[in-house]
Write a structure and sequence with these properties.
With about 130 residues, this protein is α+β, with helices and mostly antiparallel strands. It is about 15% helix and about 25% strand. The longest helix is centred in the last third of the chain and has 15 residues, at about 95-110. It comes from Brassica campestris.
Length: about 130
C-alpha cells in the first residue's frame, strides 16, 4: 500500500499476526509489531487540523515481509459530519466535504494525496 495519511479524525485498526503496517517516525520507517487482542489507533488529518497540529496525522504504509501468507485487517474510520466546519489557527476553515473533494481531485490530477497542505496558508500548495 502506498504511503499515506488517513483523512479521518481517528482510525481503529485490528490486524492479524501477519502484520506489515509501518509508520514514519522522523525520517525512519518503523514496523508495527502485531500484538494479539490489541487495537491500533491512528490519528488522521482532521484530528491534526482540529488540534492545531498538536497531534499529527501519521504517515503509514503496508509492507508484507511474508508474501506467501494473506494479510487480514479491519479498520474503522471516524469522520466528522460532511458539513461540519473544521476550524484551526493553522488552516483555513473547511468542511469535511470540501476536504474530501480536494483529496479526490488531487489524487485524480496528481496521482497522490496532498491533504492538509492544500488548506495551510503557509504552504505553496494553498488554494
Amino acid at each position: 500500500m502506498e504511503v499515506h495519511t488517513d483523512s479521518s479524525v481517528i482510525s481503529i485498526l485490528k490486524e492479524d499476526e501477519t502484520g506489515g503496517l509501518e509508520i514514519m517516525k522522523g525520517e525512519q520507517w518503523l514496523r508495527v509489531k502485531p500484538v494479539a487482542d490489541t487495537l491500533i489507533i491512528n490519528l488522521g488529518d482532521i484530528m491534526q487540523a482540529m488540534s492545531d497540529d498538536e497531534y499529527k496525522s501519521v504517515k503509514h504504509r503496508v509492507k508484507k515481509k511474508d508474501r506467501t501468507r494473506e494479510r487480514h485487517s479491519v479498520c474503522y474510520f471516524v469522520f466528522p459530519q460532511r458539513d461540519c466546519v473544521i476550524k484551526s489557527s493553522n488552516y483555513k476553515p473547511f468542511t469535511y466535504s470540501e476536504f474530501e473533494a480536494q483529496v479526490q481531485a488531487d489524487v485524480q490530477s496528481l496521482g497522490t494525496k496532498v491533504g492538509l497542505h492544500r488548506f495551510s496558508p503557509k504552504s505553496p500548495l494553498f488554494l
